[in-house]
Amino acid sequence: MNNQLDRKDANPLVGIIMGSTSDWETMEHASNILTSLGVPHETRVVSAHRTPDLLFEYASSAEERGLEVIIAGAGGAAHLPGMTASKTVLPVLGVPVESRVLKGLDSLLSIAQMPGGIPVGTLAIGRAGAVNAALLAAAILGTKHAAIREALRKFRAEQTDRVMAQPDPSVSAVAISFKDSQKGKRR
Ligand code: RP5
Question: Mean per-residue pLDDT for 98-108?
C-alpha cells in the first residue's frame, strides 16, 4: 500500500477522500494530477459506513480549514460523496471506484443519482474518473487561482502536442509492442 495515503500539503485546497485504502489504487491518479499541476491537497480514508462521525466532522469543517473542493471516491454502495455533499456547500466531485462484483456500475449509480438539492459532480468509473476529477477540481480552482488556471492550460497544450506528435497509430502500436517485448527480456 502506498504510503502517500494521509498525505497533507501545507494549506491544502483540495481534499481527496475515499471509502477504503483499497480505493487508493484508483484515487492516487487524482492525487498525481493535482501534484503535477501544483495544487496543494490532502488525501485520507473517510468511510461513510465505517467512520460516519469522521465523515461528518471532515465535511462540516472542510470550508473553515480552507479546502475549496472535495474529491470523494467510493465503490459499491458509494454513499461517501453524497453524504459529504450534504454537510458542506463546497463543490464535491464523486469518483465511482470500480467494484469487483458489478464493475463500478453500482458505485456510479449510487453517486450520480442524488436527490435534487444536493449535487455531486459525478465523473467516470475508475482511473479516468479520478484523473478528470482532479482536472475539474483544478478548473474550478482556476477561476480564482491564476497559477492553477495556467498550469491547467499547459497540461492541456502538452496533451494536445503529444497526440499531434504521433498521428500515425500503426507507428505508436509498433513502438508499444516493441517496448513490451523488451520489458520481458530485461527481467
Ligand atoms: C466502499 O467499499 C469503499 O469505497 C470500497 O470501494 C469498497 C470496498 O472496501 P474494502 O472492503 O476494500 O475496504 O466503502
Answer: 97
- Region of 66 (left: φ > 0; alpha: ψ -120 to 50; beta: rest) is left
| pTM of the shown model | 0.90
Q: Which of 20, 28, 106 to mutate to test the pocket of ligand 1 (most atoms within 8 A of CB)?
A: 20
Our separate counts of H helices and E strands in the chain read 7, 5
Q: What is the DSSP letter of 51?
A: -
Residue 64 to residue 67: CA distance in whole angstroms: 7
Residue 144: pLDDT over 80:
yes
State the distance from the centre of ligand 1 to the C-alpha of 129, rounded, in angstroms. Answer: 17
- Helices (DSSP H) in 37-126: which residue ranges? 52-61, 80-86, 105-112
Probe target for ligand 1 pocket from 17, 18, 22, 127, with the most ligand atoms within 8 Å of CB: 22
The answer to whether the CB of 27 falls within 8 A of the CB of 126 is no
Grid coordinates of 160: 494536445
Nearest C-alpha neighbor of 96 from the set 121, 116, 62, 118: 121
- Average pLDDT along the chain: 92
Give the integer Cα–Cα distance in Å for 110 and 52: 17
**Would you say how long the chain is, in residues?**
187
